[in-house]
Amino acid sequence: MTPGLLSKLPQITIATFVFALGSAAFDTVRAEDKPGFFKKLFGGGSKTETPPEPEKKPAPASKPKAEPAKTTAKPTASAPPTGKPPRVIITTTGGGSKKKVEIGKTTTPAPTKTAAKTETPKAEPKLEPIKDVTATAKRGEGEFKGDNDDKAAAAKAEATVLPAKDGWDIVKIEGREYVTAESIRNFYNPVYGFTTFRLQGNHFWLGSSKLILKAQIGSQEMLINNIKFILSFPVLSHNGKVLFSRLDLCKLIDPVLYPSHIQNAEYFDTVVVDAGHGGHDAGARGIYGYEKDFALKMAMSVRTALMQRGFKVILTRANDTFITLGGRVAIANQTPKSIFLSFHFNSGGSAATGIETWALTPQNASATMSRGGGFNLNGVTGNKQDSANIALATAVHASVISRFKFVDRGVKRAQWSVLSGCKRPGILFEGGFVTNGAECLLVASDTYRQQVSAAVADAVVNYRKALESAMASKR
Predict the structure, then answer these.
(1) Strands 408-414, 355-360: pairing kind
(2) Which of 235, 227, 199 is nearest to 211 (CA)?
(3) Neighbours of 341 (CB within 10 A)
């Protein structure tokens, strides 16, 4: 966020920084399921229950800075497919007609595929670096943990309260800087008008009619209007104050809440669409086919949807061809005025289900899963786009999750090679588990892929509009 933002905040309206709805066709979920802010910002999300607690509007503050992030690659797997998918009928609702894909929620999500190491690009310069490089605690998947989980450890952490800087209350715990939730509320309050600020037991709410943020002490999961994000570090508490890591503030919370103030935003009119795997690299073995084939079909469908919305599209592969990870990155980097979308499908146990979207791990943080590249100590090329990466991931993930009843596995972090070496804003989207019977049945359906592709394309439109003011001088 720019240093001069504070003076401009009272003048900013929601229309200037939110993701706008691209078209009437985007309205496939009832309006009451996508209230106010989230409907505009991400194109989806539902309002979480929050205890009413009116408060006076605090004075704004100015935000501390932080920027830029060893590396790994995305998975492979192979084996022959079995059987042909039966005919699929998908119904969805909205606009007077039935149009809604539904998948029943099942058990705790299983871990995803493996990643292979690759060379580490030279680190990008940092603005105001997070000095600590301590590895993160192991994070779990699924819903929030119980009230007592990790609470004692978080509360006992040795803390040093630092002098307030630019209105931000900073607490240092085990070498890592945290900011208080009060500081976050104070800074964003002029736009969001928070009326709820509450810590009840181990659960924290910050909310208004436009935005509801929910977190839990000791957990790395955070919900913004019911869309799940995986933080780089757990939320802590000290002397009754809720603490978020400064890294998460700079690399996740701020770009999501203020996409129009992302620094170094570049105008784009082209989307590089990457179908994962290909050729001898079959990817995951699904019940009704190989991941490589589903990924290619999805990429072609996304290409059509994007072109219908006026974008130029470059495919990394248009047939069953093997392309190295470096080759995919090279195509993205050589394409001017572009963003990068890589499409994959997950594998796991038969009960594993859900959608997840990956953005590059910030420097001085660990990947969401152990096989996602480990701790990103020195930074990588793609970290220059950290803010744009997380905003793009949020737009795509929320658009798909809000339109279909999928298990939300969250917006996550990893150092997949196609992300770590990319000089353009980029994400990796996992469109479901081909090892889950019901989900693979959908993945094998043209109707499903077309509808998901429409949601993705709408998200790209929304993302560009959200960054429009930041991009205006760079066309």
Answers:
(1) parallel
(2) 227
(3) 25
